[in-house]
Amino acid sequence: MKLQHVALQTPIELLQPAEIAFGAGALTALAQFAARHGLRRSLVVADSFNAARVESLGLPGEVAVFGEVKPEPDIPNLEAALRLAERFKPDFVIGFGGGSAMDLAKLVAVLPGSGQNLQDIVGPNKVLGRRVALAQVATTSGTGSEAGIRALVTDPATRNKLAVQSRHMLADLAIVDPELTMSVPAAVTAATGVDALAHCVEAFTSRKAHPLIDTYALAGAQLVGRYLPRAVADGSDTEARAGLALASLYGGFCLGPVNTTAGHAVAYPLGSRHHLPHGLACALIFPHTLAFNAPAVEEKTAAVLEALGLAPQSNQGGILESTRDWCAGLGIDMRLSAHGVPENDLGTMAAEAHTIRRLLDNNPCDMSPADILGIYRAAF
Fold first, then answer.
1. Which of 43, 93, 142, 219 is the most exposed place for a label (fewest CB within 10 A)?
2. Which of the listed residues 152, 181, 210 is the one where a domain comes to its end?
3. Do 51 and 103 belong together in one domain?
4. How confident is the chain (380 residues) per 10-residue block, as mean pLDDT?
């Protein structure tokens, strides 16, 4: 059965950073922001690569660096960052990197001195407030976390992702400077680009899809379709890098009011259980959930195929094959087995993914544990 279109008068709230600096050279806005607001104690939350180039931020005053962000940050990783924040007492927190660094920066900005701990704020709208300035500087084009209000951290005891959502974690300043992404390798460019695509497409086809967000979602998908193959083929293609950066930002806009669906729910166990990078996990699953959902959102699925420059398809098998080939054409090996996922864990992963109701309940089709297991097996 086709879903009914959401009415234009359906209420929705779109939160965006107060300031967004986009384009080549936008990084200079960070130091200007700090100077304008009298910020003199900056804590930069980064992975090891970006920690080595913190001087490029041009921050005034004292600067401390937490440069140990993991690709799939867990609670101990967060606790180490919080300990530094509690000692240093910053007035400005900057996330500098991909989604992992920006997610940890959000939590580092709201937890120290708040009287709250991580468990107190898991879920929606439990953060009491924020007393420091927060900026996000994206160095990859994928997560869109610079524009969002969510942070994800893995609990190593359960291997589940804990999601915190709060308007208090929205950046005061988001910087999207494509020049920062020029050094991203082709494989990472491909995977993170499909992650940005997944954000847009899942929001576009969600039960909660809304015309206000559809505009960003479809434009983001079109940008990925146009520019991701170019950026993978030539990492120095400045126009392609800018197009992907904008697609990622649009994907971030989609995440707040609508969020993702089954694609991300099915992808999460690949990261939390088997340490696949988030972008790669989403890329491996994307064609499968797009095809699974197609009967419920035929027109929107057709628009996604068109955005990727693919021929129209009338059946799920054709949709799966064409989008999987499109991803493989970016150099991504689309088999779970090629990335170290053990076949004997597929059933456990399916059961775990099925519990992620905050995302699966948004999916345009109901998805059973058996359906999820079928996707894993098809992707294996």
1. 219
2. 181
3. yes
4. 62 94 98 98 97 97 97 95 98 97 98 97 97 97 94 92 95 98 96 97 96 96 98 98 98 92 97 92 98 97 98 95 98 98 97 96 96 98
Q: Which of 141, 161, 181 is the last residue of a domain?
A: 181
Structure tokens at 122: 């898991």
CA distance 129 to 154: 23
Q: How far is CA 31 from the centre of its chain?
A: 25
The number of distinct structural domains making up the chain is 2
CA dihedral over 300, 305, 307, 308, signed as positive or negative: positive
CATH code where residue 175 lies = 3.40.50.1970
Q: Is residue 3 assigned to a domain?
A: no
Rounded to two decimals, the pTM is 0.94
* pLDDT tens per residue across span 197-254: 999 999 999 999 999 999 999 999 999 999 999 999 999 999 999 999 999 999 999 9
Distance between CA atoms of residues 196 and 279, nearest Å: 8
Question: Looking at the structure, do residues 190 and 339 belong to the same domain, yes or no?
Answer: yes
What is the rounded CA–CA span in Å between residue 261 and residue 285?
Answer: 12
Give the domain range for residue 132.
19-181
* Torsion on CA atoms 216, 225, 141, 143, rounded to nearest 10: 60
